[in-house]
């Protein structure tokens, strides 16, 4: 079969589209035919050697997708050949077929198509955790959402609105403004230099926001703190783009609460994965929320998808179609 393999740590040039051994259904795993694989910012981090370093190179990139069960290993009886399934945090998705541990796998209801399911796993579960657990948004709350036209940003904005919250988005270019507004952002600030805080304060009558969701790297960190109101919450979640470095806790203003939301803490039990994906699929199935697929690429063009995402030119979800 064909797969996108990183032979070593590096830029997009280390990604190769080549023949790779067929997966087998080991105990506790199923083999799936991949219908769509999600591209996530974390895949860029994996390629750059920031994550999944315990899996030796060469290795197949990608951690998310949707498709159909082809073979079931011992002890994987929750699933049957032919089931439509989606998965997240299971390495090796940039491939025609993949062996996925059942712990990472859920069934897709008939109301949700494969591409939508593949788009919602990482970014949707992240967004729903951020708005319901990390900071449970209350009606009337105002949130600042960075990269508001991106994969996480568009879903997060919709879920905040669903809970009665209001959203100020921050994006890097004018052409992303309408996309963020369509998802429900009331105001969208265009900024790449960390100069957004005064505008947020102006829009909130000098008060600042209840919560800021920031996965946009060191440049936004200071402004995000300035944009918070007293006792506001800072949800930091951008390990690939990087953090602010060591922090003196006594330098933090306004009694703010600050934390790093890591993906595996969102869905650290099977029950959480099942409950959260069910809620997302219900919302997606009845149109309460939607995913925006910004672009689909052939598997062979995965390097082009990574380059586009890193260039800040993309919006919504990027998918690879084997
Ligand atoms: N902790 C978690 O659980 C978790 C889970 C999923 C994703 N994430 C993080 O969430 C963020 C978004 O991920 P995603 O997969 O949904 O991607 P995405 O938002 O679809 O794309 C990344 C966005 O980040 C911004 N960006 C790209 N390169 C940048 C750079 N060099 N400097 C500053 N901003 C840049 C761009 O938005 P603008 O150009 O509009 O600023 C771009 O749209 C990433 O930081 C990712 O690591 C964290």
Automatic annotation (TrEMBL):
<feature type="domain" description="Enoyl reductase (ER)">
    <location>
        <begin position="10"/>
        <end position="320"/>
    </location>
</feature>
<dbReference type="InterPro" id="IPR036291">
    <property type="entry name" value="NAD(P)-bd_dom_sf"/>
</dbReference>
<keyword id="KW-0560">Oxidoreductase</keyword>
<dbReference type="GO" id="GO:0005829">
    <property type="term" value="C:cytosol"/>
</dbReference>
<dbReference type="InterPro" id="IPR013154">
    <property type="entry name" value="ADH-like_N"/>
</dbReference>
<keyword id="KW-0521">NADP</keyword>
<dbReference type="InterPro" id="IPR020843">
    <property type="entry name" value="ER"/>
</dbReference>
<dbReference type="GO" id="GO:0035925">
    <property type="term" value="F:mRNA 3'-UTR AU-rich region binding"/>
</dbReference>
<dbReference type="Pfam" id="PF00107">
    <property type="entry name" value="ADH_zinc_N"/>
</dbReference>
<dbReference type="InterPro" id="IPR011032">
    <property type="entry name" value="GroES-like_sf"/>
</dbReference>
<dbReference type="GO" id="GO:0070402">
    <property type="term" value="F:NADPH binding"/>
</dbReference>
<dbReference type="InterPro" id="IPR002364">
    <property type="entry name" value="Quin_OxRdtase/zeta-crystal_CS"/>
</dbReference>
<dbReference type="InterPro" id="IPR013149">
    <property type="entry name" value="ADH-like_C"/>
</dbReference>
<dbReference type="GO" id="GO:0008270">
    <property type="term" value="F:zinc ion binding"/>
</dbReference>
<dbReference type="InterPro" id="IPR047618">
    <property type="entry name" value="QOR-like"/>
</dbReference>
<dbReference type="Pfam" id="PF08240">
    <property type="entry name" value="ADH_N"/>
</dbReference>
<protein>
    <submittedName>
        <fullName>Alcohol dehydrogenase</fullName>
    </submittedName>
</protein>
<dbReference type="GO" id="GO:0003960">
    <property type="term" value="F:quinone reductase (NADPH) activity"/>
</dbReference>
């Amino acid at each position: 079969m064909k797969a996108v393999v990183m032979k070593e740590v590096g830029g997009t040039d280390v990604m190769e589209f080549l023949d790779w051994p067929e997966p087998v259904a080991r105990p506790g795993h199923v083999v799936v035919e991949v219908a769509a694989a999600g591209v996530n910012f974390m895949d860029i981090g994996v390629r750059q050697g920031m994550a999944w370093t315990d899996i030796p190179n060469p290795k197949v990139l990608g951690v998310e997708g949707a498709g159909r069960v082809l073979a079931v290993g011992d002890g994987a009886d929750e699933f049957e050949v032919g089931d439509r399934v989606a998965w997240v945090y299971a390495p090796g998705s940039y491939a025609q077929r993949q062996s996925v541990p059942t712990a990472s796998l859920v069934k897709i209801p008939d109301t949700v198509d494969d591409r939508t399911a593949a788009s919602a796993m990482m970014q949707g579960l992240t967004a729903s955790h951020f708005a319901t657990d990390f900071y449970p948004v209350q009606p009337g709350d105002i949130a600042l959402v960075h990269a508001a036209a991106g994969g996480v940003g568009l879903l997060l904005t919709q879920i905040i609105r669903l809970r009665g919250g209001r959203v100020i988005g921050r994006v890097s270019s004018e052409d992303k403004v309408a996309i963020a507004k369509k998802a429900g952002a009331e105001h969208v600030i265009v900024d790449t230099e960390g100069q957004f805080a005064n505008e947020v304060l102006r829009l909130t009558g000098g008060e600042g926001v209840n919560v800021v969701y920031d996965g946009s790297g060191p440049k936004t960190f200071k402004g995000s703190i300035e944009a918070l109101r007293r006792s506001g919450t800072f949800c930091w979640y951008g390990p690939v783009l990087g953090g602010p470095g060591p922090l003196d806790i006594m330098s933090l203003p306004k009694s703010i609460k600050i934390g790093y939301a890591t993906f595996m803490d969102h869905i650290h039990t099977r029950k959480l994965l099942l409950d959260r994906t069910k809620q997302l699929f219900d919302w997606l199935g009845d149109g309460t929320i939607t995913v925006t697929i910004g672009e689909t690429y052939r598997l062979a063009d995965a390097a082009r998808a990574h380059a586009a995402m890193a260039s800040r030119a993309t919006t919504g979800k990027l998918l690879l179609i084997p």
